[in-house]
Design brief:
Elements lengths: L6 E5 L2 H12 L5 E6 L6 E5 L3 E7 L9 E5 L3 H13 L3 E8 L7 E7 L5 E7 L3
Parallel strand pairs: 1-4, 5-8
Antiparallel strand pairs: 2-3, 3-4, 6-7, 7-8
Helix pairs in contact: 1-2
Length: 127
């Protein structure tokens, strides 16, 4: 179970970000559950069973980038996310691999999304 109820990200590039996350999160079993157009920008909701990740449209300048980490059930999902995110237009920010500086079983991959956010997918277990 996630420690968050939900996370909300704002962007001036909603359509591009929506396409990116649809492709990048698919290997994790996360899909877009809805999209609603609203004045000043729409909102898209993503999740597995329910919506836990929102992307909302913003006007003006792009908000400052953030770092977020999604859980993977195994190392293969980390690698599949990384490949899908790169294919969807993300920029490599750390290939899938062990990160022993965090702990001996910390296996993660990092990608910068189209709006500059650092997106991590991590599996914190054996193999």
């Amino acid at each position: 179970m996630s420690i968050f109820d939900h996370i909300s990200l704002k962007t001036t590039r909603l359509a591009e970000m929506q396409r990116f996350y649809e492709a990048a999160l698919a290997p994790l079993g996360i899909e877009m559950k809805f999209h609603v157009d609203r004045p000043g920008g729409g909102v898209a909701g993503f999740g597995r069973d329910w919506v836990e990740f929102f992307i909302g449209g913003a006007e003006g300048t792009e908000p400052p980038p953030i770092h977020m980490a999604f859980c993977a059930k195994d190392r293969e999902e980390v690698a599949a996310f990384h490949a899908a995110a790169l294919s969807a237009g993300g920029t490599d920010n750390g290939a899938p691999g062990l990160r022993p500086k965090y702990h001996n079983a910390y296996y993660a991959g990092f990608v910068i999304d189209p709006a500059g956010n650092n997106v991590e997918v991590v599996h914190q277990g054996a193999g």
